Amino acid sequence: MLEENEVRTLLEKVLGFSKATQTEVLFFGTDRSLTRFANSYIHQNVAETNTAVSVRAVLGNRIGVASTNKIDDDSLRDVVNRAVAIASVQPENPEFKSLPGPQPITLVNGYSAGTAAFGPEERANGVKIIVDRAVAKGYESAGAFETAVQQVVVANSLGVFANHIGTEAELHAVVMADAGGSGYAQRVSMDVGAFDFEALATEAVEKAAKSRNPIEAPIGEYRVVLDSYAVGEMLQYLAFMGLSAQAVQEERSFMNGHFGEKIAAESVTIYDDAFDPEGLPMGFDFEGAPKHRLALIDQGVAHAVPYDSFTANREGKENTGHALPSPNTFGPYPANLMMAAGAASREDLFKGIERGVYVTRFHYCNVVHPVRTLFTGMTRDGTFLIEHGELTRPLKNFRFTQSILETLTAAEAISKQRIQVRDYTTVVAPALRSGKFNFTGLTQ
């Protein structure tokens, strides 16, 4: 990682090379290490160190972006010239007003020295706990354990300069048992010291053991208990479907026409908070604008969507600090998505369900209808029948097509425990019980 004065000098040099009306420079520095395991042994251990510089050049209201991973003077001068050349041949965008100017940024601690120093032997020791627990039962395990240090720095010709160095660790494991059993567990944190490897191994192995010899259950609508992994996946798709100012402005969001209205159960609060240490904290977005905690669905009511500088200028609204790296077609995104915890224990979630389904996680999901929040996919790695308030028998995996907002509207209880999970993006999610989930078929 570069010291702040080093990276400031580097970015000022890039800005000095540019003759554009406005210029933005985005710097990424990454030290990333990964240990993969399959068939109950480690088969890959890799590490990558990289830097990347992305330049956004503005000529009037024409915009061009170019990038490089070389930081010598000639390469930096070349990437600036390419960004300017790209901008010069772009059509004018009359809706573009300006890059953001400098604003006060709240400093956050997203860095763990323990994660930064965590080496391959320590990752192997963590993996060994999972592998040994699986092998002792005659099962196989597979997964990956990654640690990373990432530096994000943004500067522009209007005076913005923002520097963040953060860490993250992610470990997931699938344990495969005989007779069709499988179990899954995952942990994500900025601090690898927060990982309880024994608990993660126990979770995956015990779920694999209990899911052996699954039976078929009739398709149809069930009351469900969704584990945090399933809830996190569901919320991630909800964000992709329409939790964006751009989606609202293009009238393709489920939020359109419903701000201030109830769209989920009162117990459901979904928000974006880049300052919560349960997530991966970072005080600014990829334009260098300060992040703000933003309630998206507040006690069941459609409240707000995130903005970046372009979508905010379009409407004369406040920039909430949710820009993705330019260029992107998606617009602003809630990258620190969270769902508020409830008051239920794990046992409470099963109470009152005479016949229902417990889902560990979803797999191979796709959007069906974003305005209706319909998505489809399969269950995986631990699907169980709930009878008389207790988990009883393992079930063969279902296919489903379901409205996410219907599931959240029918939410009956939310767990007080949350974990951070990750697929494409990270989500801090509780488990929940819902009175409505539609299973449309069985997997083969």
Write the layout of secondary structure elements.
Elements: H1 4-17, E1 22-38, E2 41-59, E3 62-68, H2 73-88, H3 113-117, H4 120-136, E4 140-156, E5 161-176, E6 182-189, H5 197-210, E7 220-226, H6 228-242, H7 245-249, E8 270-272, E9 294-298, E10 301-302, H8 309-315, E11 337-339, H9 346-350, E12 355-369, E13 374-387, E14 390-394, E15 398-403, H10 404-409, E16 411-422, E17 426-442
Parallel strand pairs: 7-12, 11-17
Antiparallel strand pairs: 1-2, 1-4, 2-3, 4-5, 5-6, 7-17, 8-9, 8-11, 9-10, 12-13, 13-14, 13-15, 15-17, 16-17
Question: What would you say this structure looks like, in words?
Answer:
The protein is of the alpha+beta class. The chain contains 10 helices and 17 strands. The chain has helices at 4-17, 73-88, 113-117, 120-136, 197-210, 228-242, 245-249, 309-315, 346-350, 404-409; strands at residues 22-38, 41-59, 62-68, 140-156, 161-176, 182-189, 220-226, 270-272, 294-298, 301-302, 337-339, 355-369, 374-387, 390-394, 398-403, 411-422, 426-442. Helix 1 packs across helix 2 and helix 4 (120-136) runs parallel beside helix 5. The chain is globular. The chain starts with a helix and ends with a strand.
Radius of gyration: 23 Å
Distance between the termini: 48 Å
What strand order characterises the main sheet? 3-2-1-4-5-6
Approximate helicity band: 10-25%
Fraction of residues in β-strands:
35-45%
Specify the structural class.
alpha+beta
The SSE string, one letter per element, is: HEEEHHHEEEHEHHEEEHEHEEEEHEE
Number of helices: 10
**What is the oligomer described by this structure?**
single chain
